[in-house]
């Protein structure tokens, strides 16, 4: 079988990676373990930040250019030049974009990644660049792409239904999780705090969680809420809610935390709460289940898809429902144990190696159909 040269835009996986960046970090880790035949070019570009060089197999090569991210994105999105082949110094057979927009390539087959279509439904809650480019370009790019990678069945259905794409062109490749999350703390290592892993942006629905915490405090709960995630578009509203509810001494905004710190936070939390209005997958669900922490999550389709019966679900807009769900979990040892046991069983279905095997199969099918 002919060896392929596969180019991946690795820029979202630089430091402080979230969402799609963490997905691509994990996918590449899986690829290094399962594919020793094809050649991979990991492309990075930034004016200020240099990609972290780490040990990878010889068929993986990192190319790091000093080109500002915004400048390159504007060129790629608007004039579709320069080609990734030119920047990477390689003739690509596959050009894999971590976003819904194509990477320009001279002859490479194109793969785009769609984590969710939140930007299409709620452009006002996204960054300026995403508002400007994604909503206006995504429909033409999905039609031109040779393959579309969706990170969940939920997202795949959205792509088919909202972008008028044939289901045969959409390939579901779930996220996996870092094995470090499989190291649980001792039962005595738990502390009395809830953990929310979320960038502070509107879709994460943190004000409803804060309302729930305020209700719990009125009922006599004396724990804390820790929010692990960078400051984003909803920071002002979250701060105002904390002040209004007098939770200044109850809520810890930790900002962005690295993977090692995050692993420790999971292991010592009494429960993990994910109140999101919209997700493409929900990586913290896997990490919490792997860490042996009970889950409370918003009742949205993708959370059901990922966690199944290993979480207690609450209506996203209902703070009282979240308060009741949290109270049931933190006060009932039998329920906690059942959720942890179900989570362990559930998370065993997900791995970066399995995801990478599916990605390699997709690359090979595209390469064979040239």
Compute the number of helices: 14
Quaternary structure annotation: single chain
| Strand runs, count | 13
How many individual domains?
A: 2
Strand content: 15-25%
User: Could you tell me the radius of gyration in angstroms?
Assistant: 21 Å
What share of the residues lie within helices?
40-55%
CATH topology of the largest domain: Rossmann fold
Q: How far apart, in Å, are the first and last alpha carbons?
A: 13 Å
How can the largest sheet be summarized? 7 strands, parallel
Could you report the average pLDDT, rounded to the nearest whole number? 94
Overall CATH architecture of the largest domain: 3-Layer(aba) Sandwich
Low-confidence stretches: none
What report would you give on this structure?
The chain has 370 residues and is an alpha/beta fold. It has two domains: 5-176 and 351-368, Rossmann fold (3-Layer(aba) Sandwich); 179-347, Glycogen Phosphorylase B (Rossmann fold). The protein contains 14 helices and 13 strands. The strands form two sheets. A seven-stranded parallel beta sheet has the order 3-2-1-4-5-6-7, with helices on both faces. Strand 12 (295-298), helix 11 (301-307) and strand 13 (311-314) form a beta-alpha-beta unit. The chain is globular and about 65 Å long.
What order do the helices and strands come in, and which of them pair?
Layout: E1 5-9, H1 20-34, E2 39-45, E3 60-65, H2 69-78, H3 84-88, E4 94-96, E5 109-114, H4 118-121, H5 128-144, E6 147-150, H6 153-163, E7 170-172, E8 193-197, H7 206-218, E9 224-228, H8 235-244, E10 251-255, H9 259-268, E11 271-274, H10 283-291, E12 295-298, H11 301-307, E13 311-314, H12 319-331, H13 333-347, H14 352-368
Parallel strand pairs: 1-2, 1-4, 2-3, 4-5, 5-6, 6-7, 8-9, 8-11, 9-10, 11-12, 12-13
